[in-house]
Each structure stands twice: as C-alpha cells, then as structure tokens.
C-alpha cells in the first residue's frame, strides 16, 4: 500500500521552475495553440453596445449548458459585461479580421459603423458572423490577472457555414490558410 502511495505522490510531483517564466516567451510558445476569435458583447447601463475580443472562449458543460471566457481583470469592458449580468458570444467569420481589430481597439468608437441587432436578452448580435451564443452570467472566478466568466447559455444559433476567424502564431486567418501555412513550414516550402 505504501508503494502505491509513493508512486501516486511521485506522479503528481512537479519540480518548481528554476527561473521565472518570461511573459514574452510564454506568449510566443502559447501562440502555437490556434484559437478561435469571438466578440463578447452586451449593452451597457445606457443601452450602448460594449464588447471585447476574446481568444479564450470554450464550452464548459452540457448539463447545464455553460460556456466561459477569460478577461483581463483590469479591463473596463469586462467590468461592464459583469455589470450587465449577461453577454453574447459572436463567433467571427474569417473575413471579419478588420471588425475584430476595430472591436479590440481602445475607446468608445468600437461599435461605430458596426451593424448589429439585439438578441432576446438585449445583447448585440453582430451581422455577418458564423454563430452566436446568448448567456446570462453564472459565475465569475478571479484567476491570476484575469477573471474566468462562466455563462449559462439561454439561446444559440448558427448563422452561416462560413469558416471562423482563427488566431495562430500572431496572425489572423481561417482554418485553410493557417493549415496551408503550417504545411508549408513542415515541408519547408516557404
């Protein structure tokens, strides 16, 4: 019995890093993980649209239906989303990079010229997206320098069969363009 406990303890043991992890190196290495790009939107206290670009969106649970994303704890937009108590995840299409960059910018002009319609919960559903997921906030957990915001899905729809926008190695693209780029590198066809 003691041998099993020792073996279990050894498996769970991880040596502490010899030096602190450099933030830039951390981002570079994790940039090798392709992520989907979504716009998380809501309406603020004066019914103005608010939103942020997120690359950490994921499904959490089927029963109950839950999704989540991470937001910088210092972000004023995430504070507005939390105050609203609800949000809509807009899955951006591959040709919406310009919109993505606009919504990622600082300032109050993010939604100038952006076409959207309110969801049943009142959240902006952006025109031209792949899909949307309307949620109420279920749980918020502070983790490091971010908040994990978990939403209970209230309604969701696929809007089109277009390919989604992806972020990979510091660039935007779609599945096909990023797959081609990766294949070129693997085959040394640059």
UniProtKB/TrEMBL annotation:
Q: Which UniProt keywords apply?
A: Oxidoreductase
User: Per its UniProt record, what SMART domains does this chain match?
Assistant: Flavin_Reduct (SM00903)
Q: Name one Pfam family in it.
A: Flavin_Reduct
Q: Where is the Flavin reductase like domain?
A: 30-174
Q: Which domain of life, per UniProt?
A: Bacteria
Q: Which InterPro entries match?
A: Flavin_Rdtase-like_dom (IPR002563), NADH-dep_flavin_reductase (IPR050268), Split_barrel_FMN-bd (IPR012349)
What's this protein's family per the entry?
Belongs to the non-flavoprotein flavin reductase family.
- Under which name does UniProt file this protein? Flavin reductase (DIM6/NTAB) family NADH-FMN oxidoreductase RutF
